[in-house]
Write a structure and sequence with these properties.
Helix content: 55-70%
Order of helices and strands: HEEEHHHHHHHHHHHHHEEHHH
Low-confidence stretches: 1-7, 259-293, 343-400
Strand order of the largest sheet: 1-3-2
Structural class: mainly alpha
Mean pLDDT: 78
Largest sheet: 3 strands, mixed
Number of helices: 17
């Protein structure tokens, strides 16, 4: 019996080593693999490799996982305990196999961190592995955490600190800027795909916020590009709280800093070098306060209109009402803060064709908005611009925010046939009266 068990263990070792090698060969054969998955297969039916590569999709037959995962797991633990030696190439292959099957195994990511630090592993290749793992496990916390570590590493390489960095050749700067822009665009794509694979994927959206905070560094153009990009996504996922929270972050980033002015000149800002990207960008210097006051209401108006369109098109979704509540609260406070003592009332075009006051939150004397809207849209991509919206709504009328919101609620209650929609509209009305009405 012992001899048969030994033979069985030897067979398993040979099998697993072959599978690990097949996975490595698959990546060499097709470096553009963009998705991984398990192929339901309780047992081996044919004398062939359980690794299946079709176009850009990599599949692993499920029968081999019960042998493969414990093997690579134990192999890595023995290495960490210094009981078995593995060279760098073997470590890369084993951790790759292990993380594709179990991306929340922290030890494997830590080994890859060491490989990146010693120069044995390219940071972009490590990001690529994480991207593949997220196609199967889109919410994996350890994968997102590791991505942030790698991105910080890339950022340090593109924007080195210290006296010596100023002597860096001018020829390297455009290449580093291009690299940083490429990584940023890839991260936005990875986040979008992960958010689409798992409903309300908080890990993906919070990672996206982190990327903008650390890689975009408040770049106005990037923030507006994100607004335009995410607008379609939230329109197709009207119950996803995390997606709307991201829009709130974008709006807060755009209007929360008094020095940011949202006009066409500012939107033309682009990252031309790593230094400019890594430093705080100059945002709208020398622009009048009146220009800023004109731009911010337009921003909120666009968001209120989006929210109105979605509430009317998809009745009974609480997420949309929560989003509208947040917009109005932010605008209401922003309006009070920026027009205090001016002897004039600010108005926001409301969803029912009139004007509307929205909101803005002030923290420590600094405005903090949490909603977003597309101010300047590409007419080629969106058949819908601010100018056409103004024509659609007709002439602006001078009225306050609360009355216009009450008219919107009355219209919804009068037209809706959904009990849920009616309940949410009534709750919103009560919130307006008890919270906003007392401010």
């Amino acid at each position: 019996t012992i001899k048969k068990m030994a033979e069985s263990e030897e067979e398993v070792d040979v099998l697993v080593q072959r599978v690990v090698k097949d996975i490595n060969n698959a990546f060499k054969k097709n470096p553009n693999i963009d998705e991984i998955g398990l192929i339901p297969c309780p047992e081996a039916r044919y004398n062939r490799s359980p690794i299946v590569l079709v176009e850009n999709k990599l599949g692993v037959e499920s029968w081999c996982v019960k042998f493969l995962l414990p093997y690579v797991h134990n192999k890595l633990l023995l290495f960490r305990q210094r009981k078995q030696w593995l060279d760098r190439d073997a470590l890369i292959d084993i951790t790759c196999t292990l993380l594709l099957l179990n991306p929340d195994f922290t030890t494997a990511w830590n080994v890859r961190k060491e490989l990146v630090q010693c120069g044995a592993l390219n940071p972009e290749k490590d990001l690529y592995l994480g991207k593949l793992a997220l196609t199967k496990f889109p919410k994996s916390p350890e994968t997102w955490i590791h991505r942030r570590w790698v991105l910080q590493r890339v950022l340090q390489e593109c924007c080195p600190q210290g006296a010596g960095c100023k002597e860096q050749g001018e020829a390297d700067r455009p290449a580093q800027a291009e690299r940083l822009q490429r990584v940023l665009q890839e991260e936005m794509k990875v986040c979008s795909e992960a958010a689409g694979r798992y409903p309300s994927n908080y890990n993906a959206w919070s990672h996206r916020i982190w990327v903008l905070q650390h890689l975009a560094k408040g770049n106005i153009k990037i923030l507006h590009d994100e607004l335009s990009c995410v607008k379609y996504w939230v329109s197709m996922h009207v119950s996803d709280h995390s997606g709307f929270h991201y829009r709130q972050f974008l709006l807060k980033s755009l209007v929360g800093d008094p020095s940011i002015v949202l006009d066409k000149d500012t939107l033309s800002l682009a990252v031309s070098s790593p230094d400019e990207h890594c430093a705080s960008l100059s945002k709208g210097e020398g622009v009048s306060v009146e220009t800023q006051r004109t731009a911010v209401p337009d921003l909120f108006d666009e968001e209120m209109q989006l929210c109105t369109d979605l509430i009317e098109s998809y009745p009974g979704h609480e997420t949309l009402w929560c989003h509208r509540r947040h917009i109005f609260f932010l605008w209401h406070h922003w309006n009070k803060e920026h027009y205090r003592g001016c002897g004039q009332a600010s108005v926001l075009k409301s969803s029912d064709g009139t004007l509307n006051n929205t909101l803005s939150e002030t923290t420590g004397g600094k405005t903090a908005q949490d909603m977003d809207v597309d101010v300047v849209l590409d007419a080629g991509k969106q058949g819908y611009t601010q100018e056409t919206k103004r024509l659609k709504r007709g002439p602006l009328q001078d009225c306050h925010g609360l009355p216009s919101e009450h008219r919107f609620i009355a219209k919804v209650l009068n037209d809706c046939r959904s009990t849920e929609q009616s309940r949410f509209a009534t709750a919103y009305k009560k919130w307006l009266d008890t919270v906003i009405g007392q401010l």
